[in-house]
């Protein structure tokens, strides 16, 4: 059965952990979906993992639409969520409606994700939710603010921890259906998870979140430089390198074609 937002809420209540992985094209999305990932996120990390940029900032809405449509075509069961790229929603609620509207209408994904939890962002989340566009929040380390925050752990002082906790409440009250908690202390993520009704999805936020997300390029060992909280489950870089070298050798030695 296809995963719905209502199902995610139920899983939180049942303490059945929610699994989320990122995807950037049809082939990867199809494999992750058939393997059983509950949610597939077309994360703007694809700017780095698939497009070779240094940060997520250069990604355009057009490029995101192209990737999200390909991902969605590969998915039958998982709920598909698409990041809104940098500066396609921060300007105003109107801009967010235009961008999120295009994402849903032109790609078929079921929800969008955006970063931040201050009053302006919460207002935007409320507006999108009210018109029927489900929104996943994302707080803590928000990579679209890299020039401001760096890639450091967030919420390490009592003041910033309090601020992140407040942002979680803001987003939950604004109608977000779930929130990604990135690179914050485990006890803070635990406290947020226990005190909001919607599922939290952690990445570098400890084991007490309702679900976990990993960048699939990190899971597969495709990225040479991984964040400290990532766990490679295989080394596709080595596997692809060996396969490529074997092919080259076979062609040169006239062992392929037979
Ligand atoms: O873009 C991305 O991959 C993300 C996840 C790390 C949550 O936002
Ligand atoms: Na992202």
UniProtKB/TrEMBL annotation:
A GO molecular function held by the record: methyltransferase activity
Pathway assigned in UniProt: Cofactor biosynthesis; (R)-pantothenate biosynthesis; (R)-pantoate from 3-methyl-2-oxobutanoate: step 1/2
Pfam families in the record: Pantoate_transf
InterPro entries cross-referenced by the UniProt entry: Pantoate_hydroxy_MeTrfase, Pyrv/PenolPyrv_kinase-like_dom, Pyrv_kinase-like_dom_sf
Name of the top EC class for this enzyme: transferase
UniProt superkingdom: Bacteria
SUPFAM superfamilies the record matches: Phosphoenolpyruvate/pyruvate domain (SSF51621)
Binding-site residues, 3-methyl-2-oxobutanoate: 44-45, 83, 113
EC number: 2.1.2.11
Cofactor: Mg(2+)
Record GO biological process: methylation; pantothenate biosynthetic process
GO cellular component entries: cytoplasm
Active-site residues (renumbered): 182 (proton acceptor)
Cofactor stoichiometry and binding remark: Binds 1 Mg(2+) ion per subunit.
Keywords: Cytoplasm, Magnesium, Metal-binding, Methyltransferase, Pantothenate biosynthesis, Transferase
Assembly and oligomerization: Homodecamer; pentamer of dimers.
Known role: Catalyzes the reversible reaction in which hydroxymethyl group from 5,10-methylenetetrahydrofolate is transferred onto alpha-ketoisovalerate to form ketopantoate.
UniProt record similarity statement: Belongs to the PanB family.
Protein name as it appears in the record: 3-methyl-2-oxobutanoate hydroxymethyltransferase
Native source species: Euhalothece natronophila Z-M001
């Amino acid at each position: 059965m296809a995963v719905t937002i209502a199902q995610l809420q139920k899983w939180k209540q049942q303490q059945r952990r929610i699994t989320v992985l990122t995807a950037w094209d049809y082939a990867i999305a199809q494999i992750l979906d058939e393997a059983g990932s509950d949610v597939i996120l077309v994360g703007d990390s694809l700017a780095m993992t698939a497009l070779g940029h240094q940060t997520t900032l250069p990604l355009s809405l057009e490029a995101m639409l192209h990737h999200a449509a390909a991902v969605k075509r590969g998915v039958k069961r998982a709920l598909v969520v698409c990041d809104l790229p940098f500066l396609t929603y921060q300007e105003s609620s109107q801009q967010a409606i235009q961008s999120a509207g295009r994402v849903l209408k032109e790609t078929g994904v079921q929800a969008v994700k955006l970063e931040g939890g201050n009053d302006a962002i919460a207002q935007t989340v409320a507006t999108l939710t009210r018109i029927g566009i489900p929104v996943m929040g994302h707080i803590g380390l928000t990579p679209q603010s890299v020039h401001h925050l760096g890639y450091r752990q967030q919420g390490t002082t009592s003041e910033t921890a309090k601020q992140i906790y407040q942002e979680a409440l803001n987003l939950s009250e604004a109608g977000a259906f779930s929130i990604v908690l990135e690179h914050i202390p485990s006890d803070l993520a635990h406290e947020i998870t226990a005190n909001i009704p919607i599922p939290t999805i952690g990445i570098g936020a400890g084991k007490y979140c309702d679900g976990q997300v990993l960048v699939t390029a990190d899971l597969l060992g495709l990225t040479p430089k991984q964040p400290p909280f990532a766990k490679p489950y295989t080394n596709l870089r080595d596997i692809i390198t060996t396969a490529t070298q074997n092919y080259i050798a076979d062609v040169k030695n006239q062992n392929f074609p037979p």
